[in-house]
Amino acid sequence: MLTVFYLLLILTVGRCSDDLNFDMKTVGVGDDVNLTCTRQKSSGQGTLFWIRLVSGNFLKFLGGTYSFDYNGVNKTPHMTTKQEPGTFLLRIHETKLSDTGLYYCIKINQLEMTFLNGTFLRIKGPEPDITAVIQVPPSDPVRPGDSVTLQCSVLSDSENKTSPGEHSVYWFRAGSDESYPSLIYAHGNSGDECERSPQTHSPQKCVYSFSKKVSSSDAGTYYCAVATCGEILFGNGTTLEIEGNCRTF
Does the keyword Transmembrane apply (predicted)? Predict the structure, then answer.
């Protein structure tokens, strides 16, 4: 069952419902957090799940329930999912820096998956060592069928590193007809993208690339986002214009 669940998620990441709610929430270390997802019992049968996506790791299943009223509770010492009137609740007890990430509430009805809620949860901690997130647009015109590579350079001051662990990198796309950006890619934490200049006190530079074969519907603005130290830092965005596309961004 979980194998089918993972395959469904991989095939549908970035395909969100038109009324997807996506927001950012910031809390301090040790705070309790409640994330809610509306249960619409009149919309038919289905199963709701809370999941967490962190680049470099498999998605984490946090709990599930039914669209109809059900008394079951998924509980761990750190997270609890349960039904409340009209909602499906995810409660995080005494947050930690490692809880920073992207949380989705999804609904599965047979083989159809719908993304209902998306929350980028930021746990405020030490100041990040990231000094810049730089995106460079493609230098050549882009036509339907071309393969395009977008790059994001992350500069960090490793001499003053205050947070343990590596940073996580995500790519989002915002089109003119979408109210919220869609997550389209999450990088793994191999460390192969980073290089350190031999000069003393020089910043570390990590370059992350995202490639895809584009069609006219891929036009839009692509954002590189870096999660580190409980902070989420966005690049300046890369606007991808597809020649022959009549839409304006």
Answer: no
